Amino acid sequence: MSQSPSASSQGVPPTAASLAQQYPPDAPAPRTLAQLTEAGKRSEVPEGLWMRCPSCEAMVYRKNIEQNLNVCTECDHHFRIGADERVEQLCDPGSFEPMWEDLTPLDLLSFVDLKPYSERLRGESKKTGHRDAVLCGKAFVKGRGVVLAAMDSRFMMGSMGCVVGEKITRTIELAIETDLPLIIVSCSGGARMQESTLSLMQMSKTSAALARLDSEGGLFISVLADPTTGGVTASFAMLGDVILAEPKALIGFAGPRVIANTVRQDLPEGFQRSEHLQEKGFVDRIVHRKDLRSEISRIIDYAGK
């Protein structure tokens, strides 16, 4: 014999007796919405294990990227790296001898933007472990002695102030004294506005030193990484005997938006990227990061240095 429809199915409010049948005393209490939501959450994943590639937008395992010289395993996008990583990738293990690490920038103008310049310098130094945005010294690249300067975009976007200009100049002068090939890896947002005209003076200072290197028959290999812009591009970065660039690196003086607004024309696709500059003759060769050591050593051998 079929059971009659329950009171609740007929639209009648349930009675205490019917509720007791559905939820006997020994049954577990219903979980609240908060408890159900918490139970439905996935287990927490430690932060920093995965990262998103800004080029292909793929989620990639950070450790795999680091083992691949900080190049995306999916699309070959070259991530920005600090000066320490650059030195480690380019130089023979244990061969790099840092120099002039005691040079410290001064806040001669008492400059204040969102925070005092002196305070900003302390924060950047604590973050990077260096006193300014370039690491200079002597090293070996596949057994070839070199003088190397590597700019660090982590320190105020690699901007060039008095200390950066001085260390670059000293590196060039050391190459003259030792008759060793000079390698400068540029990665910079340009002149450092907090040092005003003092920063702009570093453009002529470094360029004059390179003119002396050229007159002595020295070899200068300039490596352009993403980004190389502003006063660095307008001075030593584009004065190399051989100019190499990493794939799709942003290279230029003013930004593309400023140029487009000035000329009031649509810019070519890939404008100010290393491939476009190679097509126009500003860059000699585009080199993948994994091939950079070999390419530099071949150029040194070819030049007889």
Q: Compute the gyration radius: what is it?
A: 29 Å
In CATH terms, the superfamily of the largest domain is 2-enoyl-CoA Hydratase, Chain A, domain 1
State the end-to-end distance. 103 Å
What's the CATH C level of the largest domain? Answer: Alpha Beta
CATH topology of the largest domain: 2-enoyl-CoA Hydratase, Chain A, domain 1
In short:
With 305 residues, the chain is of the alpha/beta class. The protein has helices spanning 16-22, 33-40, 62-67, 83-90, 117-128, 162-178, 196-215, 230-233, 256-263, 274-279, 292-302; strands at 50-52, 59-61, 97-98, 134-141, 144-151, 182-188, 220-228, 242-245, 285-286.
List keywords for this structure.
35% helix, 2 domains, globular, alpha/beta, seven-stranded mixed sheet, 11 helices, disordered N terminus, 2-enoyl-CoA Hydratase, Chain A, domain 1, 305 residues
